[in-house]
Amino acid sequence: MIHGRLAAPAESGNRSLLPNARLVARREYVEKIRSRAFAVATLILMTVAVAASLVPIGLRAIDRGQTTRIGVVSPDPATTARVIDLISAYLNPVPPNVDPATVRPGYVLDAEASLQAGLADIDANRLDSVLQVTVGAGGGLDFTFHGNDGPSSATIQRLQVATFGAAVVEYAQSLPHTGSGPTFHTPSFQVEPTDAGPTISPIDPSVAGGRTLLASIMIVLIFITLTVYGMWVATSVASEKASRVMELLISAATPRQLLVGKVVGVGAAGLTQYLAIIVPAAIVLALQDPIATALIGPADPGEAPLVGLTLPILLAFGAFFVLGFLLYAFVYAAAGSLVSRPEDIQQLAMPLSFVSMAGYFAAIFGMTAINSRFVEILSFVPFFSPYVMLARVMVGQVEPWEVGLSLALLAASIALSSWFAARIYGAGVLLYGQRPGFRTFLRVAIRPGG
Amino acid sequence: MTLAIDHLTKRYGGVVALDEVSFSVEPGEIFGFLGANGAGKTTTMRIVLDILRADSGAVTWHGRASTELPRRTFGYLPEERGLYPRMRILEQLVFFAGLYGVPSRQARRDALDWLERFRVPELAGRKAEELSKGNQQKIQFIAAILHEPEVVLMDEPFTGLDPVNVSLLRAAFLELAAQGRTLIFSTHQMEVVESLADSIAILDRGRLVTAGSTREVRRRAGRPVVRLGVEGDPELAWAKALPGVRSVRPGSDITELTVAAGTDPQSILHAALARGATVTCFEVADASLEDVFIELVGRTDDVEPATLAPLAVESAA
Known about the structure:
The structure holds two protein chains of two kinds.
Chain A: H1 18-34, H2 36-53, H3 55-65, E1 68-73, H4 77-91, E2 107-111, H5 115-123, E3 129-135, E4 141-146, H6 154-174, E5 189-192, H7 210-242, H8 245-252, H9 255-286, H10 288-296, H11 311-338, H12 345-366, H13 373-378, H14 385-395, H15 400-428, H16 438-446
Parallel strand pairs in A: 1-2, 1-3, 4-5
Antiparallel strand pairs in A: 3-4
Helix pairs in contact in A: 1-9, 2-9, 3-10, 4-6, 7-9, 7-11, 7-12, 7-14, 9-11, 9-15, 11-12, 11-14, 11-15, 12-14, 14-15
Chain B: E1 3-12, E2 15-25, E3 30-35, H1 41-48, E4 56-61, E5 64-65, E6 74-77, H2 89-99, H3 104-117, H4 133-145, E7 151-155, H5 163-178, E8 182-186, H6 190-196, E9 199-204, E10 207-213, H7 214-220, E11 225-230, E12 245-250, E13 255-259, H8 266-274, E14 279-285, H9 289-297, H10 309-316
Parallel strand pairs in B: 3-8, 3-9, 6-7, 7-8
Antiparallel strand pairs in B: 1-2, 1-4, 4-5, 9-10, 11-13, 11-14, 12-13
Helix pairs in contact in B: 2-3
């Protein structure tokens, strides 16, 4: 009953962060998770992610189906024949306990009369590429590859190994039975692009700079999530303002409790969606090789492993994802508190999107000059470090203390931005009908009461 | 041991929202807060709640600054009603009470109890967006008091309610006051204030015009109303000429005369009798709150606010 329970003035105020921030976070989380839009988006993205993680298997399967035809020319037909035998055996390995007759070769090597004839065959689409063998003065072999494969393609990488083997065998056979022979000439291997002719898939995702690809994917993921989940926070604050429930909230809880609760609640919902999307895809990726074996047979000895993920990379990704989100989310929340209608957020959030985009591009383009001073500096600057330091971890050389320092700076800036955001939020949520703009934002940050 | 509003001043840019406003509310009182739109009522309430800081001045409750009081001391019904549109009513009430530190089981029980008393138990499982305005308002009232605050501030709690709900809300007011809670509410419905408020304050453009017990304020206006009925003479045209009579409002049988301060109402009766009239009705009453309000606030713009200043000083003292 309500009678006679006039509470004595509570001694401990409810101005400490925790119980209320937790209540706000839980409400936020439950509402988000229960919404149909959330379920639909998660399901669609989950499907896309699983499909995307099956792409490498698909590419390998397509690779398998193709036969790469290579013409071989050398000054001497006998040498040509020996080189073809050796390289062909290397490129078309027969798995143990398998009848060689049942294995369809991935590479077919044929002798060509001359380089011109070979290049003509490439033009005529009868060959994919030509391997030119030259014999040096000491009998040592050198190789030139004529074709359009990129320098990192699987064909070229395997040919380099195979030609080295062929050179060793040639050298061994040229040695006299007694006494010392000529010293071993390390074969050179050059790539001559042929502009004409069919292009063999220039990027081979399973091999081509696997780390760079993975880094790009992670940076894109961080960019998307920081922007999308940050907007969730801003929209959520703005709609509380628009529905006027804010005035009740702000009289019951402090701005800091509301702000932290909101950011954590939305962040947890985002993380849930994230895991729902990533986990099935990661399982597919982790089981890539067994799945590939089941679908398209065992991996060839020369094929690169499909997954480049390691635990430290995952940890770095997780840390930069979570901290980066927190930093951006507090600023988004402050922005959301300044608009009267959710539709106005886009305008106010624009400068923040530009900052985020700058970090994203710095990281993506920085990967080509990963060890430059500029990239190094940016990797410590909060707002940019979630992108740039992650890129450095993935494709550059970075000391553990550098990562630690970058994370510490990020954490410190989160503390600062949450304090500023609480100031703006406390004043902003009661502002109605003002033109939202960057100037209001700054003015309120400097003088919340004004 | 009161809620003391002490020289509050608040400016928004160049606009003075509150100008040295002082008054006090006794514990257990029902306090009516009056003023035209934009007079500064909401700003005052927000400062009391510490969701807005005054430029100068202070608010204390039992001697403690409101900025140091736990938030659960106060309950608030904002002027702009707002609930989470897609959240179920019972969940919302439990959530808001939770923010004030009420355990969810207790909040749930009390919320259901109040819904029952407002005759809307079926709303517990509904979403706020499905509710009528009147019902949303009842839910907001429950949200304001579920944590059993010592002081409840309500901005226009009666607007938009039908007569049945007004009387339910009145009953709730009286019950809360009987429990010793202090209730402060703003309204434009003068008859509600007259019948419910122990004390009132009137604000005009950020300045306190008058404050005190309702009866005292009405009396202090010093312009009693005389209701006079004379057989066969509904117009009472002669009364306008009497000294001290400011206005004559003829009704069907009774005519209302407003009298200047210091005029003895009995002189009107004497004048009527002296004319040989048969007086059927003679009544002296304090000015209605509506009259007081219009008198103090509803002036036209060519009247300088300075003419009201002496009264403001007197009542603030």
